[in-house]
Write a structure and sequence with these properties.
Chain lengths: 160, 338
């Protein structure tokens, strides 16, 4: 069978049903790839190896992340499950963020209690987060009056 | 605990704990001995200078015996970890044992408030006041993004663990306990045994607690826990008890009265068997099938026949066989009114 587009030998045979109509397509390798039907499957080994090596390098780089305060590394933390000092949360940046996300059902921001000796600016930031969550809840439950009040509070906080 | 609180026929006790760390120090497990001792001294001085000082016992773990530490664990006022680990550590305990502040557990400070029955909201009000009071003199590690910073990221944010100890004998008898567990797991809750993490359930007692500590306020976590977990499970257990009374009254009565018989007459009894039988007696009292034994007796027996308490009461160290004998005698005496 010949390719429907270029007359070369067809090696890709596709049956699609579009709007109840059966459409058969017969294409050669090159045309099928151009049409986005197939993707080049045989990646050269050298390419594969170098991307593997990069992934390993990245993993090693994450494992080698160190906290300058307590000197604990990411891989040490992963082994023991316990952090070395409060600064680790910042020092471990991205991997820490994704770990917290996994452990906390996707949550990455604190909206709970704030120590009373915290600066007002930080207090306001956390209150805003809390209000936005309340707002979403109110809208979802069609409590429009509550939602309006929350919006007022939010705009008060953001205009300061 | 003397009296049963709200929903006390099923909710034996409830607990809230907050994890806090002192800013500027390494976390406990990573700190060297010198720094651990410094944190202990620092926190001790602040706690014992607070307005709570007259109501607190300060107990340094290095100054009491392993048996005494085990007794504190059996009373649920310290964790197994605090009792058994190494390093400078202590607990400051209110005289009625309802408030405990563990120093140098996994985190520098772990506050807990314990009450009978379901009183989580009251517990939170109380622990919140203590937390606020401590903040006057202690600066806790806190980040605007992640909230209270804890040694393990599973506690980060609010640092709150809300838990209840539930007595679920009817669900167990009807073979429905696994269903409850599966539902709890779906809701990201942890189910543990009598003494928390890593312990097996015994005597049909199960500890349920929240896992998520970030992205919600403390009040939301507590409300959701009560509405979505405690109240439905209590309701299931009530239905199961009704079903047993209606459909399997003879089998149920047989189990309950046999339990009374065994406990009243045994001369040797293991802790495991005692807990198993006490569970039926507790059920019998709550269903008003047993009228001459009081819940207070069951609670006392439950606590006082555990290994460390039993040995303290006997005034000597006992091997497993000796404990089984002493336990049986204690129960016989208590149930016959001596």
């Amino acid at each position: 069978m010949r390719c429907q587009l270029c007359d070369k030998h067809a090696s890709v045979h596709l049956t699609e049903i579009i709007n109840g109509e059966k459409i058969e397509r017969h294409l050669c390798d090159e045309c099928a790839e151009k049409e986005g039907i197939t993707i080049k499957s045989n990646v050269p080994l050298s390419e594969l190896l170098s991307s593997l090596a990069t992934a390993q390098q990245e993993a090693r780089a994450v494992g080698d992340l160190h906290c300058p305060q307590c000197d604990i590394s990411w891989s040490q933390f992963r082994k023991s499950g316990l952090l070395g000092c409060p600064h680790d949360y910042e020092a471990f940046g991205k991997p820490m963020l994704s770990l917290i996300k996994r452990a906390q059902e996707g949550a990455v921001k604190h909206i709970g209690r704030i120590p009373h000796n915290t600066s007002n600016e930080i207090k306001d930031q956390i209150r805003l987060l809390r209000l936005r969550q309340d707002l979403q809840h109110a809208v979802e439950h069609e409590e429009y009056e509550t939602a309006a009040n929350i919006r007022d509070e939010i705009s008060k906080l953001t205009s300061n | 605990m003397d009296d049963s609180g709200p929903l006390g026929d099923i909710v034996i006790s409830c607990r809230i704990r907050l994890a806090r760390n002192i800013a500027g120090f390494q976390f406990f497990s990573h700190a060297d001995a010198e720094q651990q001792a410094e944190v202990l001294g620092f926190v001790r001085d602040k706690v014992m200078a607070s307005e709570l000082k007259n109501d607190l016992w300060y107990i340094d773990m290095s100054e009491i015996s392993a048996l005494e530490r085990e007794m504190l664990t059996e009373r649920h006022v310290i964790s197994k970890q605090l009792a058994q680990s190494q390093g400078a550590r202590a607990v400051a305990l209110s005289h009625d044992e309802s408030l405990a502040m563990m120093i140098n557990e996994e985190d520098h400070l772990r506050l807990q408030v314990l009450a009978s029955g379901l009183q989580l909201r009251e517990n939170y009000d109380r622990i919140n006041r203590v937390d606020t009071m401590l903040e006057d003199s202690l600066k806790f590690a806190f980040s605007p993004d992640y909230g209270y910073l804890t040694a393990c990221p599973t506690n980060v944010g609010t640092g709150i663990r809300v838990s209840v100890m539930l007595h679920l004998p009817a669900l167990k008898l009807l073979g429905q306990i696994d269903k409850v567990f599966r539902a709890a797991k779906d809701m990201h809750l942890a189910i543990r045994g009598l003494y928390g993490e890593g312990t097996e359930p015994a005597g049909d007692l199960y500890q349920l607690s929240n896992q998520i500590t970030l992205g919600k306020t403390e009040e939301q976590i507590i409300d959701e826990f009560i509405r979505r977990t405690v109240e439905p499970v209590v309701e299931y257990e009530r239905l199961a008890r009704k079903k047993l009374l209606k459909d399997r009254f003879t089998v149920l009565s047989d189990k309950i009265y046999r339990a009374v018989g065994l406990l009243s007459h045994a001369w040797m009894i293991s802790s495991e068997e005692a807990m198993h039988l006490l569970s039926f007696v507790r059920l019998g009292i709550n269903l008003e099938l047993i009228k001459n034994i009081h819940l207070r007796d069951i609670n006392d027996i439950f606590l006082l026949t555990q290994p460390a308490h039993l040995q303290a009461l006997s005034g000597k160290s006992l091997d497993a066989g000796g404990r089984d004998e002493a336990r049986a005698q204690f129960i016989r005496d208590r149930l016959s009114g001596n």
